[in-house]
């Protein structure tokens, strides 16, 4: 690497690092604001001493009978991954993706362990989105779009595996008018990954890291835009800091280019600021 090219790369990395740090600060403030909003929202609708099951029912009851929310003539232009939007627009709370988004964000803020579940068609396109809530040691299925916890005829809460049984599925949906029979649990995923340049990524990930979509919690990353941006900014900052360290080592050890050493100058500035001047 020539010195001229190195200087271009060095300056580019430093500019990108400053931009990443600014994005990190901004997204950190955004995520904090969203979390504070969700805490206040959940405290208003979920009783403080409620059991986990009661917390689920309290959120669904708010979604069923809560106060009137704004009606937007063009919801397609709204930020559908921003909880402050999904919780306040009526038309977003009747769409499976955004209704589940609202439920997951409120449930997580209410100290429930939750995750999204995509119901897939035979060609692996998403046909419906529901939520799973960990109650005890079982992942119970909740359908926020229809404001229900899936239960059999005995009132027992059902898991996705139990809903693969046609009888359980029929019992769980019997009281829901016009519930599509296509919303079954034969095929599902927590994260839907499309092809990248014609390469099928899911089989490769399943081979490298079996169970990756269940062993890692993807819901917060996928359902909260502010957290996604924060994670992206943190990852970019880490990568650029590492790249800057490698470039600094290369400049010092290989190119022998004199450069501005920030830590050295900060140490000197600190010493000058805090050292008591000598009186002669």
Q: Can you tag this structure with a few keywords?
A:
elongated; 2 domains; 5 strands; C8orf32 fold; alpha+beta; 280 residues
Series of H and E elements: HHHHEEEEHHEHHHHH
Shape: elongated
The first-to-last residue Cα distance is 52 Å
Number of domains: 2
CATH topology of the largest domain: C8orf32 fold
Give me the side-by-side strand order of the main sheet.
Answer: 4-3-2-1-5
Question: Segments where pLDDT lies below 50 for 5+ residues?
Answer: none
Query: How confident overall, as mean pLDDT?
Result: 83
* Gross CATH architecture of the largest domain: Roll
The share of residues in helices is: 40-55%
What does this structure look like?
The chain has helices at residues 3-45, 52-65, 83-86, 96-109, 160-163, 166-173, 201-208, 212-215, 219-223, 225-255, 262-274; strands spanning 114-120, 126-135, 138-143, 148-149, 188-189. With 280 residues, the chain is of the alpha+beta class.
In short:
Helix content is about 55%, strand content about 10%. It has helices at about 5-45, 50-65, 85, 95-110, 160-165, 165-175, 200-210, 210-215, 220-225, 225-255, 260-275; strands at about 115-120, 125-135, 140-145, 150, 190. A hairpin with a 2-residue loop joins β2 (about 125-135) and β3 (about 140-145).
